[in-house]
């Protein structure tokens, strides 16, 4: 797989929104904490956001940063919410993930560093990318509620 990003992150990277583990635990539910802070993956097909069809914005469940527009969401058949592009070029960061005996590109919120999921090169046009996100890492705001 070609390198999708040149923004390899280190464990000592600083983000605009930073909290202690205790502060994150107090702010997030158990599933959100597991995904966003401990890099867990929710079970496929368990997120209601996978079948969300309304117009709106998918934001980081940790800090509220806008990450994906519903206009870029598509049905990937994987069981996780999937998008072909982030809402802005600097909304989502990436780093190499060598866990589970493979190399993948992990995605995270550029504002708080929360783990979102992974990006793959098997998505639809126009980007050819599939941002495969954990629903627990996202919060959805319907278009009529956007500010």
Describe, in plain words, how this protein is organized in 3D.
With 147 residues, the protein is mostly beta strands. The chain is built from two helices and nine strands; from the N terminus they run ααβββββββββ. The protein has a single domain (21-145), classed as Metal Binding Protein, Guanine Nucleotide Exchange Factor, Chain A, CATH 2.170.150.20. The protein has helices at residues 21-27, 30-36; strands at residues 56-60, 66-69, 73-74, 82-83, 92-97, 104-109, 115-120, 130-133, 138-142. A hairpin with a 7-residue loop joins strand 3 (73-74) and strand 4 (82-83). The radius of gyration is 14 Å and the shape is globular.
Briefly summarize what is shown.
This protein is mainly beta. It is built from 2 helices and 9 strands.
Write out the CATH superfamily name: Peptide methionine sulfoxide reductase
Structural class: mainly beta
Fraction of residues in helices? Answer: under 10%
Largest sheet: 6 strands, antiparallel
The top level CATH class name: Mainly Beta
Which features characterize this protein?
single chain, 147 residues, mainly beta, Metal Binding Protein, Guanine Nucleotide Exchange Factor, Chain A, globular
Topology:
Blueprint: H1 21-27, H2 30-36, E1 56-60, E2 66-69, E3 73-74, E4 82-83, E5 92-97, E6 104-109, E7 115-120, E8 130-133, E9 138-142
Antiparallel strand pairs: 1-2, 1-9, 3-4, 4-8, 5-6, 6-7, 7-8
